UniProtKB/TrEMBL annotation, chains A, B:
Leader sequence segment: none
Entry protein name: Glycoside hydrolase family 65 protein
Domain Glycoside hydrolase family 65 N-terminal: 24-221
Keyword Iron-sulfur attached: no
Coiled-coil portions: none
Lineage: Bacteria, Bacillati, Bacillota, Bacilli, Lactobacillales
Amino acid sequence: MGEIILTLRDYHLTLNDVADHQPEYLETVFSLANGHFGVRANDPITGNPITGTLINGFYETAPITYGEAGIGYATQHQTILNLPDLRHLHVATATGHDFTNSERTGVDLDLSTGALVEHYTLQTLQGETIKMTVKSAIGQTKTEFWAIDYSFSAGNFAGGLVVSKAIAVPAEAEAIASADPRKTRMAGLPICETAFVSRDLQRYHVKTRQTKLAVTIYLGILTEGASLLRQNVDLSDQGTHSLTYEVYVGEMGQQNTIDPAATFMANSLSALLADSREFWQDVWNRSEVTVGGNDELDLAIHYNLFQLNQAAGRDGRTNIAAKGLSGSGYEGHYFWDTEMYMLPYFIYTNQKMARQLLLYRYQTLPKARQRARALGVTQGALFAWRTINGEEASAYFPAGTAQYHIDADVAYAVGKYYEITRDIDFIEQCGFEMVLETAHFWEAFGSWHQVGTDSRFEFHTVTGPDEYTALVNNNYYTNRLAKHNFNLVTYLAREILKDDPHGLEKFGIGSADLDVFDNLAQHVYLPYSQELRINEQDDSFLSKPRWPVDQSAPENFPLLLHYHPLTIYRYQIAKQADTLLADYLFPEDLSLSQLKREYHYYEGVTTHDSSLSRSIFSILAARMGDTEKAYHYFMDTAQMDLVNLQKNTADGLHLANLGGSWLALVAGFSGFYVQDEVVHFTNHLPKELTRLTYRMKIAASVLEIELTATTTNVTVISGPIPTYGVSVNGHLVSLEKVS
Amino acid sequence: MGEIILTLRDYHLTLNDVADHQPEYLETVFSLANGHFGVRANDPITGNPITGTLINGFYETAPITYGEAGIGYATQHQTILNLPDLRHLHVATATGHDFTNSERTGVDLDLSTGALVEHYTLQTLQGETIKMTVKSAIGQTKTEFWAIDYSFSAGNFAGGLVVSKAIAVPAEAEAIASADPRKTRMAGLPICETAFVSRDLQRYHVKTRQTKLAVTIYLGILTEGASLLRQNVDLSDQGTHSLTYEVYVGEMGQQNTIDPAATFMANSLSALLADSREFWQDVWNRSEVTVGGNDELDLAIHYNLFQLNQAAGRDGRTNIAAKGLSGSGYEGHYFWDTEMYMLPYFIYTNQKMARQLLLYRYQTLPKARQRARALGVTQGALFAWRTINGEEASAYFPAGTAQYHIDADVAYAVGKYYEITRDIDFIEQCGFEMVLETAHFWEAFGSWHQVGTDSRFEFHTVTGPDEYTALVNNNYYTNRLAKHNFNLVTYLAREILKDDPHGLEKFGIGSADLDVFDNLAQHVYLPYSQELRINEQDDSFLSKPRWPVDQSAPENFPLLLHYHPLTIYRYQIAKQADTLLADYLFPEDLSLSQLKREYHYYEGVTTHDSSLSRSIFSILAARMGDTEKAYHYFMDTAQMDLVNLQKNTADGLHLANLGGSWLALVAGFSGFYVQDEVVHFTNHLPKELTRLTYRMKIAASVLEIELTATTTNVTVISGPIPTYGVSVNGHLVSLEKVS
């Protein structure tokens, strides 16, 4: 791989009109992360010193209190810890005037290297000003490290400065109760121990009380001979003086026997910048997407992929939180968003990462088995709807645990991973067990219902992806995915048997079991409206009244922040793509005319109050040839966080939407999907774009796809000429290798 | 009324095998109450001194904490206060040995007078024993008063005693968190002030912190010259020595300017016993039910009516809590149980009390209007599912607020009250407004659904009486009651117009509005299974799988204490009568053959985990002529608390079931119902009973009904010969007055 290196143009996310943005928004947007930990871009002077750093999977639990508890309810909140801001700094004049005011005058994030540069003007209460430039970078293969450099120069003040920096220890704080379920809560404060190993090195040890997780963080000042707590800087020479600091964030639970001083030397800011640059070069080389005709959009899609890569846990024990490592919204939980919205990007561009993300889910399988039992299902496993440690942490089951579809989503992702990688080892070691256990779950969870001569296998009292409709029967999406789960388990079983005739023995199943699954797959009921000639979202969705026009003023959205769930549930109103999400996943299921009917129908009853919605609407609009609509939805998708569309970017980025924006380009504008070992591309480029180019890896081949208004080129830029079929605009083609 | 006085035979609830019963069970079963306050029968020596007294409607609030809160959720718990035990006593020998051990050797509650007599043997750690007899009574028209007399006599000890008695002030206690939603919680402790006005009088003032309610309680010792805190008793004469105390429990919020000493003199124990006796004579005279052939059952039904009368708030500002004043289960909340299970007894035997109970609901109408708005319903009112003060206090909306049927239940009760009383004043002042506001609610809450040529008016995402099935569409019970609500509003409107041609003007409705209601009533959709030829519980109930046989072991019941709601909801399993409850209310709706089919079907899927279930099954079995089954269900109903059938009588009596047991006799065995100004009686007396006799008041006439295996007699014992029709065993009869 990598024979042809793309030269990334200068992709800088730059803000000069910083004052127009709320600080929390900037902290999120310019956060740096590496899958292990994230550093929000707090203002070093005025930002909150006790929050800003998030370590993936470093969480605390607290009992969930219910107004009225029930059997089998999730018992423990899991909450990612908001650790002290690593960027905080105290600056004063030598005469003792603190610089308490700070204005961020410019920010520049270089997406090709990961370097973040910011410019500040600091001011004391007495009116003295200086300028400060801050450069920072996070290690991308050296994932324990982050470094920052503060350069000071004179403003109206040009005398002596005293600079001090330390990791702040949080004081007691109260738990936050919020009516907004998308925000986070403050868990019990961890046990913190901090010590100054030497004048240039602080150790900070943080241990959780309930989960017994521990991390050691070191803060050092790299500037030779300098002191952390009191460092003099003299600006009277009118020069620029910089102080460089480095932070080491250990792995959870590991004894940190490092020699920080030596380690820091080897990982200076410039070393981290080089490490970061190399990492991003590789990322862009694998997966760069360029869009012609709209520079802003081109930048946005680069930004999205940048943040997606920053957020993803790489160790097989962590995953991608709903807000990544950019904010503590949704408590740092992992959802089905990973498998359905983010994993595709990794499956098609970085299969090792995709495997790591699936491994995380596999590790939660024992807890998923317990959860199935707690739900009265006698076999199989039910993955947690929201979780860090694998246990269910949803405190509102109608829109949490009842979304059983997560099981089929995980199975679907395993299938997609295998389809492209043919990684039979992973299937035999982990993947098949997940698909088998989820299939067993559906088998025991569902029930037969005889309607006339029709034997239906049905699923009752479930919630589909649309959280504005809860506890319904035969949610189309759930049923369709469960059907796929049954099909997949027999398919993968036969793949294993090809590889090893005894390969199924360890799973305790034989051909009779496969026959059962085949039979179930054939009989899963898929609701369809004869009247409207569309798939029905569920057995009753279409019979409910539409949301009242007089309650449809823009200020009433998102509905979940303005209406009781009972109010929302009784109407025919969807938060997001639901049946259409299944249509997107299974293009072969329905004719173009039916798709158009369904799209038209469900678009009329969907609020897009979820960030998971617009990307799917964009993809399907493209598939239907309505590229104008596809473009419209895509633009909201692509720039959702940059324009703060959902107005809560302060809580963190909408990671699933970042993945969705990639899907919209690839599955939408270029019509990509894989079916029966044929890879399909169809040119649906909107007229607003002059060109779309991207790379993906399928089996061992790296393909480059380039679309213009009149051309659709797919070439092999690395690896062998594919053995699978490639269809371009409906015609099978032979690929050529460019070299 | 009252020309013929029944002489109540000696109905004593007596327990001599007291040791076989847990103390909390006895405390509940022998509790005394008068609608204003209740005194549980705590052991005076070993019982918990800080709980045992409950004042109807005296409650505290505390914020409801949700794992994940939502818009419009109930915000405040309302919890009846557990006030100090008024029966507690401290007894020691003059040598300082405390009597710390106590054995209750006998209890006798005289249902004809309300006198409670108990016998105890007390023992010190040193082995000294004495005997104590305790007599107590609560005022029934003098509802502020309760008195108790303790008589001491020698056991193996015959020396001096020191007796002290005071109202105990509770210390700080922790909130109780329980997974059993049927239990109560401890609210924040109230502010208590206690003072000894004199050596024979203690004042106890208790004030809630949030609700700002206050009550003053006085405890006095009536024995002349005696002291509350230290009273010597000398048993050396081998005689019996008694001390008599009295308690005054003020009305909430009233300044207590009474002269306790003088007041107490006028209300001595003997005066209270006389007051109580008179009250119960009147109750039995109005409403006595006697059953021949089973003395135990005869006693049980007397006990049930006794407790029902004790529990009911009589002031128009309080109601009947789910556990009455016998225990703090369900937090002292009022539910729909009042209107549907308890009010009928009062409507047909004590119309003034029935009116007071409806007045309570009327007073909550302003809060019910607010609640409807909070649920996104633009007109009408939604009564709180569970409440003391009229605000919704259900912390689990799928089995709380979603039971919208409470609106139609209240309307139904108003209609039943009017049907019998013709109390047009009440309708014009209160009743019509409730029926109109609930009809307006249904009008705005429902929606039209066109199915072929059929225009249905439907109700979506509701929970019916069966709490094991939640958030469904077109619950038959709900729809049928809503249809009745529409019919009733037009009926009552026309009744008002007869009384006063301008009578509707103040309600702002005219004939066009009545036409709208008429039209809605005609089109309310009632689900019916063509296949099974039965009414369907809801749109999807019959398509769900049955509860698995392998999870049907007795120890798995009640299901709500063993399974996650999601597990229960996805099966075709009912906690209680639901569609059958509607069938009971509207006998004219269905043929006997359909009733039999429905009964057979729903009996097979009902667990009777609710105490509201068996009485309805008994009534319908009787109506179907299956008197054996009717008797079987009735026996569980009649003795539910006396045999501790639900195993939680310790938390309080099942008041609705007490009412239900009366319904089972009257509506079941004697086939009583009223339809189109005809009062129907049909003899369904089970062979196990030789006779059933009861009284009821319809319009101004008191009827006595007497059934034997071969006879059915209905006579007028007071008031005029009725102008309405009376049907006995299917034939209209002319009644004669016995005198």
